[in-house]
Design brief:
Elements: H1 6-12, H2 15-18, E1 23-25, E2 32-36, E3 39-42, H3 43-53, E4 59-62, H4 64-85, E5 94-96, H5 103-113, E6 119-122, H6 125-134, E7 141-144, H7 150-158, E8 165-170, H8 175-186, E9 192-195, H9 220-232, E10 239-243, H10 253-272, E11 279-281, H11 305-323, E12 329-331, H12 336-339, E13 343-353, H13 360-366, H14 372-382, H15 389-408, H16 414-434, H17 449-453, E14 455-459, H18 463-466, H19 468-472, E15 479-481, E16 491-496, E17 505-506, E18 519-521, E19 530-533, H20 540-543, E20 554-560, E21 567-573, H21 578-584, H22 589-606, H23 611-625
Parallel strand pairs: 4-20, 5-6, 6-7, 7-8, 8-9, 9-10, 10-11, 11-12, 14-16
Antiparallel strand pairs: 1-2, 2-3, 4-13, 13-14, 13-19, 15-19, 16-17, 16-18, 20-21
């Protein structure tokens, strides 16, 4: 039998397909690694070091070097493409803060993006206040989208006196009078934009957020009326930006091309109407290939970064050249593609349950003299029909169902039922192994077996807190072990989290051809076994909830040291303690402690507890209030 290699693991876990050249497996150690221009990070080594530091799992590892690489890739590709095509405008990307508002992420982004003059996009008052405080690049845009009131607009307009390049985007007709009023009160001319509803729609899971029924944006009639009102107010000179958005994670490049073409046409028409437009904001939507399949699938995209940029720049240039309109500065609001790769969650496997125990066949044979059902199963086990596996499955299933019926009616003992169940599972496991090497999929009657017989690996994390899109919208994320990747995985598993919820699991995994119901993992050998859940930098922290009161995980920001192999932890953000998550739900620490103290005093009075036992309980209770919400 051929020896398993790291290259086999790369193919099994599709690392090269989703890793974007940033993630790989070290051929010497078999560890998952991160590689950028600054150096290489060994994730298994980082986890081991963190445990020695007293930093417990689950642990979110944020990777500023990866964020820098993604920013440089986007900015550099736009600049190079514009130069190559002779494009007359410049590129001005903005990062939507909503994608990940965590302070260190925003700081890392601003630091990484200075070279390209990336700005920020805000959709609320808190986000605008973050942007005004942190973004001080005079060439970078601060784009304000979403619903607005006079307070928000006044803040945005007044910030122009600080040298901030704020652009207030009109999403609804009622916003224009507020903008003009605020500008008059401050005495500063505003810079305005307008978001429009395109006839073109996106592609993928969020395609319905675009088109005529989109939640945000002006219709074409409202856009024409906006121009008329600005002319009447002698304020058309303030209209500098046109914006549209066709949804997050656009999976098909054709949808991008059609939207850019329509947006450019509207831009040219507005320019001929007298609007001195400078920016065309093509919104977000640049996808992330989570499963590495490079297809028009919700967790993938059928294009790459270079093709996306080529389509945007080439299409805008072509439309503007044809209509004799100067090339606008191109703005993108790509958030997911910038930050998704920059975070990985590390969880430990606490234990496992499996249904196809290796000694099940032996148990059935030993019971063959005692139970006729066991004798029949033993005979099937010795004579499995490899050419017609469904025949064997039907026979085994009939024995199991007949035994169950007798058990319900009192004709079979619990011992017999347990032996038959175990024997049935063992036969099904053998049927799967018989076809494991074939290229053909399992027969449709057997295709449910891998999921039904999969091990359950119990992991120290909460799906709802750390990977909410996996539960909410069936988003796929790459998952693989951090070590032993030079060793062939011999088990297939689904992952169960710590929550008391049947949905607290991951049972859909990436595959080269389709979605797999199980993850290939190694048998536990008594040593810690760590799994990495990758590409979690976009939205997951923002959307996470407190199901079962599992709070934020610990997070570290890790950079490579270019001069020599190694790393430095720039920042450590402690996860929530029990006391903190209880406070979110209005439980006061003092009142909880006092309630327990009264119960202990009552137990003393009844003679149910000694003073020493009460003291130990109180000390343990108060100590646990300060502890991590996850298992330690």
């Amino acid at each position: 039998m051929r020896r398993w290699t790291v290259e086999d693991s790369r193919e099994l876990y599709q690392v090269e397909a989703w890793g974007a050249g940033l993630f790989d497996i070290d051929p010497t150690t078999g560890h998952a690694v991160v590689t950028t221009e600054r150096g290489r990070l060994d994730l298994k080594q980082i986890v081991d070091d963190c445990l020695r530091r007293g930093i417990r799992l689950p642990l979110l590892i944020r990777l500023p070097d990866v964020l820098q690489a993604r920013v440089d890739a986007l900015g550099g590709t736009f600049v190079d493409t514009m130069e190559r095509l002779g494009y007359g405008g410049v590129y001005r990307g903005v990062y939507p803060i909503k994608v990940n508002q965590e302070r260190h992420i925003v700081d890392d982004f601003i630091r990484s993006a200075k070279r390209w003059h990336f700005g920020l996009e805000c959709g609320s008052k808190p986000e605008l206040q973050v942007a005004l405080a942190l973004q001080d690049d005079p060439e970078a845009l601060i784009v304000i989208n979403g619903y607005k009131d006079e307070e928000l607009i006044s803040m945005a307009v007044a910030a122009r006196e600080l040298g901030r390049r704020t652009v207030v985007v009109v999403e609804q007709p009622y916003e224009l009078p507020m903008i003009l009023k605020s500008a008059a009160a401050v005495g500063v001319p505003p810079v305005m934009g307008a978001r429009i509803k395109l006839g073109s729609t996106g592609a993928g899971r969020w395609r319905h957020s675009s088109g005529d029924r989109a939640k945000f944006g002006l219709t074409m009639q409202q856009l024409v009326e906006l121009v008329s009102e600005l002319k009447a107010a002698d304020s058309l000179s303030c209209f500098e930006l046109l914006h549209y958005h066709i949804g997050s994670q656009v999976t098909n490049i054709r949808a991008v091309r059609e939207a850019v073409h329509e947006g450019a046409r509207v831009f040219c028409e507005l320019y001929r109407m007298g609007a001195p437009l400078r920016y065309l904001d093509v919104g977000g939507g640049l996808g992330v290939d989570y499963d590495g399949s490079r297809t028009d699938f919700p967790s993938s995209m059928n294009y790459d970064l270079r093709e996306y940029v080529q389509v945007v720049v080439e299409t805008v240039k072509s439309v503007c050249d044809r209509e004799g309109v100067p090339h606008p500065d191109i703005v993108t609001e790509s958030g997911r593609s910038l930050v998704a790769h920059s975070a990985v969650l590390i969880t430990s496997v606490l234990g496992t349950t499996n249904l196809d125990s290796s000694d099940s066949s032996t148990t059935v044979k030993e019971a063959a003299g005692k139970f006729a059902s066991a004798k029949s199963l033993a005979a099937l086990t010795d004579d499995i029909d490899a050419k017609n596996p469904q025949r064997t499955y039907h026979a085994a299933l009939a024995i199991k169902e007949e035994t169950f019926a007798r058990f319900v009616m009192g004709g079979a003992t619990l011992e017999e039922r347990a032996i038959v169940d175990a024997g049935f599972n063992a036969i099904c496991a053998r049927l799967i192994r018989l076809q494991n090497g074939d290229d053909e999929p399992l027969h449709e009657e057997l295709e449910h077996l891998p999921r039904s017989l999969a091990d359950i690996y119990f992991c120290n994390f909460s799906v709802f807190q750390s990977v909410p899109d996996s539960w909410a919208v069936s988003q796929l994320f790459p998952i693989m072990p951090l070590a032993r990747l030079e060793e062939k995985p011999t088990r297939r598993a689904v992952l169960a989290d710590l929550t008391c919820d049947s949905d607290g699991k991951i049972d859909r995994f990436i595959d080269a051809r389709d979605v797999k119901p199980t993850l290939d993992v190694h048998a536990l050998d008594g040593q810690p076994y760590y799994l990495g859940i990758f590409l979690l930098g976009a939205y997951q922290e923002t959307l996470g909830d407190l199901h079962n009161l599992f709070g934020d995980t610990h997070a570290i920001h890790v950079r490579a040291i270019p001069e020599h192999p190694g790393y430095v932890i720039d920042a450590m953000v402690e996860g929530d303690s029990v006391e903190e998550v209880l406070a979110y739900m209005q439980y006061d620490r003092k009142s909880l402690v006092e309630a327990l103290r009264r119960s202990i005093e009552d137990a003393y009075a009844r003679g149910m507890m000694t003073f020493e036992a009460g003291n130990r309980l109180m000390e343990a209770y108060t100590q646990r209030l300060r502890s991590y919400t996850y298992l330690e």
